Amino acid sequence: MSDSGKIEPTNPTGEVPITDDTPKESKYDRSIVEGPLSGAVWKLAWPTMLTNLFGGLQGMVDHAVVGNIVGYKGNAAIGVSWQIFLVVVVFVSSIFIGMSILVARFAGAGKEDKVDRTVYQAFLTAVFIGICIIAPIGYFASPVLLDLVNAEAGVQVEALPYLRIMFLFSSGLMIFFMLSGALRSAGDARTPMTLGIAMTVMNLVFNIILIRGLGPIPSFGTMGAAMGTCIAAGLVALYSFYHLWAGDWVVSLKHNGTYLPDWKIIRKLFQFGLPAGMQGIAMNIGGVLMLAFIGSLAQSAAAQAAYAVSYTQLFSFITFTSVGLMGATAAVAGQNLGAEKPERVTLAVHAAARFGLIAAGFFGLLFFFFPQQLLGIFGMTDPEVVSIGTLLLRILSVSGLFVTVALTYTGGLQGTGDTKSPLYISIISQVIIPLGLCFLIQTFGRLEPIHIWLAILSGHIARAGLSVLRFNQGNWRDITVDIETTHAG
Description:
The protein is mostly helical. It has 16 helices and no strands. The radius of gyration is 24 Å and the shape is globular.
C-alpha cells in the first residue's frame, strides 16, 4: 500500500509494472545528450570523415585515370563540370539541411514519429525536384553553363556529356545525401559510412572499366566517370529505400501522418534549409566565377587543370574531413538543444574544432612538402601545370586550418537552427572578398595565378573569423523548432 492509501498492483515476477506513464525506451543513442561530448562528437564524426575520404578517393581515381588516358583537358572537364553540377544540386541539398535540423531536435527530445514524418517529406520533395526539375533543366542548360565558365573548346567537348549524365541521373546521389543526413542527425553515423564505402568501391570498379574500357565494353573516357558514379549511387539508393520502408534503421519512411505532401512540414524544411541552400549556391557560384577568372589567365588550361586537381580533389581531404565534423557537430548541437542542454552545444563545437585542426594540419604538411609527388599521381607532369599546382597546394596547406574552423562553427550554427548567419558569412567571405580582389587586380594590373590563390586564402580566413564571432554571440540559444503533432502521433 502506498502512502496515499492506494493499493499498488503486484507483479509475481518482481518486475516494475508497465503503465501508460512509464517512459518509453528511446531508440536513439542517448549518450549524445548525456555522455562525454568529445566522445559524442567523435562517434558521429569518424564514420562521416571516413566516408568522405573514401568519396574523395573516388574523385581522385576518376582524375587519375582520366588524366592518364584523356589528358589534362579531361581533368579540367571533370573539375569544371563538377563545380557547375554542385551549384544546381546544392539547392536540393538545402532540404536535407532543414531535415537534419528537425530530425536532430526531435531525436534529442525523443519524438520518434516527428523524426520519421520529417524524413518522409524530405525524401518526397527531393525526389520530385531531382527528377522533374533538375534533370530536364540541367540537360538543356549544360552548354550555356560551360560557356559561362570560359571553358576552352577542348574542355567543353569532354565536359558536356559528363555534365548531362550527372544532371539526368542525380537522384541516386541525392537520396544517399538525404539518408546520410537523416541517420547521422538521429545518432547513427555507421550505416551511412557502410553505404558510402560500398558506393565508392562500386564507383571505383565501374569507373575504371567505363573510362578505360574492358573486353566488349568500349572506353567512354571522361563520360565513363559520370556513368560509373550514377550507376553506383542508383544501386545504393534502391537498397536504402528498401530498408527505410521496412523500418530496419533508426529512421524510417513509415509514420503515423499522411503520405501525401505535407505542406506545413515542407515549409519548415525550406524555412531552415533554404538559407543553407542559398549559402551553398553562393559558394558554388563564387567557385564558378573563380573558374571564369582562371579561364581568363594566359595559362588558362594549365591553371584550370591545377585548380581541378589541387583544390577540388587533394584539398577535399581537408574539406571532406571538415564537412564530416560539421555534420557531426550539427547533429550533436541539435540533439542537445532539443534536450534543453545548450551549454553542451558550445563544448561540442570546441571539441570538433580541435579534431579538425589536427586533421587539417596533417594534410597541410603533405601539401607543403610533397606537392609534386601528389600532382604526379594524377598524371600532372607538364612543367607549367606542376609549377602552378605546387604553388596552389602550398597556399592551401595554410588555408585548410581556417576552413576546418569555419566549418565546425558553421555546423554549430546550422545544427541549432541558425542557417541565415552562415549564408551572410559565405557571401562575404566566399564571393565578395575573393572575387573582389581578383576583379581589382585584373582591372588595375595583370592577374596571375598567385593572385587568385591568395584571394582564396583571404576568403577562408574571413570565413573562419566571422563564423567564430557569430557563434560566440549565442543567439542560437533562442531558436525554436517544431511541427504539429498528428492525432495518432
